[in-house]
Amino acid sequence: MNKSELISLEVEETADGSPTLYLPNIDEHYHSVYGARTESQHVFVKHGLLRYLAEEPSSELTVLEVGFGTGLNALLTLLACPKGSTITYHTYELYPLSKAMVSSLFEQKLSADEWTVMQQLHDAPWGEPCQIQEGFFLHKHHQDICTAVLPAAEVLYMDAFAPEKTPELWSDEMIQKLATATVCRGRLSTYCAKGVVRRSLEEKGFRVERVQGPPGGKREIITCKKTR
What is the reported pTM? Predict the structure, then answer.
């Protein structure tokens, strides 16, 4: 994918009332049309962040996200951050959204408090850590994750566009890179349950589970734990 393919973004409402973006040039949505917020909460917060904390209680952890996109995963992670915990959130995005696009997506769809936080997430500078709220530090990386040096992370959100749209982000080399960044007993979650992705994750040291997808959406998603 290249930048020209991201020009004609269209705002669409999904089944749970939350918004997403549609890229007609490549026929791809940023989130599930069956519920953007529902999908993000189910795949990444429930089966990523909260699964990890249930298994490995910790007051400090790092989350690494492939694809900042609309900022929805970051917002829901911040909202789910347990009191007294500290999350450092690293996210990689080559094509940040404009402020106008963020406003058209969320200003009328989020509560007043959530909209304030979403603005803080998007206004945060690129390339340096920024404290958004007590216990939540955001570090946005405006660079190609394929060539970036990744920090170690306890929780990893694999939220790139589908493999057929961005195959380089789902290659064996990329999966190995993500596996290397994931600490032992860390957890990776993704909406993509393709067999080739599952097998690659298993080969790279993850114990993979295919679990039920979000209501109305994909039948299965993947969550996995780093075992070596």
Answer: 0.95
Helix (H) or strand (E) holding 154: strand 153-158
Q: Are 65 and 93 in contact (CB under 8 A)?
A: no
- Residue 13 tokens read as 């409402």
Q: Please name which of 52, 120, 108 lies closest in space to residue 81, comparing C-alpha atoms.
A: 52
CA distances from 62 to 14, 129, 137 (A): 30, 12, 9
What pLDDT digit, counting tens, does each position of 126-180 carry? 999 999 999 999 999 999 999 999 999 999 999 999 999 999 999 999 999 999 9
Instruction: Tell me 126's DSSP state.
Output: B
- Strands, sheet with 28-29, edge to edge from the N-terminal-most edge strand: 10-13, 19-23, 28-29
CA distance 18 to 136: 24
C-alpha–C-alpha distance, residues 95 and 20, integer Å: 16
Q: What token pair was written down for 100?
A: 């106008």
How large is the C-alpha radius of gyration of the chain? 16
Tokens of 19: 């918004």
127 Cβ contact list (under 8 Å, min separation 6): 140, 141, 142
